[in-house]
Amino acid sequence: MKIGGYDIPSKFNTKAMIDIEELIGGDVDKLSEFIAAEGITTGTTLKRLAQIVTILANGAVFAHNKDIEFGFKQGEKKQFFTEDFFLAKIEIQDIQECMQSINEEIYKGTAVVVPDNVKIAEEDEVLAEIEEIKNQ
Q1: What is the mean pLDDT of residues 126-135?
Q2: Which residues have a Cβ under 8 Å from the Cβ of 97 and sit 6 or more positions away?
Q3: What is the Cα–Cα distance from 22 to 18, expressed in whole angstroms?
């Protein structure tokens, strides 16, 4: 994830999922509702984004440290991120990009099934008309 000009490794593993579900008080599918709940302030939205980003960043740190602990890779263990780090780095103009980064991390690789009767792209009527004229 790109946060405050830094590339922050993130990982949505089981540990991160449990931590997010404990934070939001329900299934991870309710995450968007938690972040942008009706009636909350922009500051609260930014705080909630910082909380989620902290959990995802620490998911990567947790996995890295366990790989070292169990001898799967060499190196030094990393320090876990604090929420304060992200509170200092996430700014109001970052809300959309931050939400996108969170969604990409959580839902990457998720198979999407599109029913047969649903178009996945809208037809551009102007382009279709131009193509029709060209083919005459």
Answers
A1: 76
A2: 2
A3: 6
Contact 54, 67 (CB under 8 A): no
**In the numeric block, which tokens belong to residue 104?**
């990409």
Residue 50 three-state SS? helix
Please give the Cα distance from 95 to 83 (Å, whole number). Answer: 16
Q: Write phi, then psi, for 45 (nearest 5 degrees).
A: -60, -45
Cα separation, 38 vs 84, in Å, equals 25
Query: Vertex 66, ends 64 and 71: CA angle to 5°?
Result: 100
Residue located via tokens 């990009």: 97
Q: Is a pLDDT exceeding 80 seen at residue 39?
A: yes
pTM of whole model > 0.90? Answer: no
| C-alpha of 42 from chain center | 18
Q: What are the pLDDT digits (tens) for 55-95?
A: 999 999 999 999 999 999 999 999 999 999 999 999 999 88
The answer to whether residues 100 and 94 touch, using CB atoms and an 8 Å cutoff, is no
CA 44 to chain centre: 18
Q: Which stretches of 70-124 are DSSP H helices?
A: 83-89, 95-107
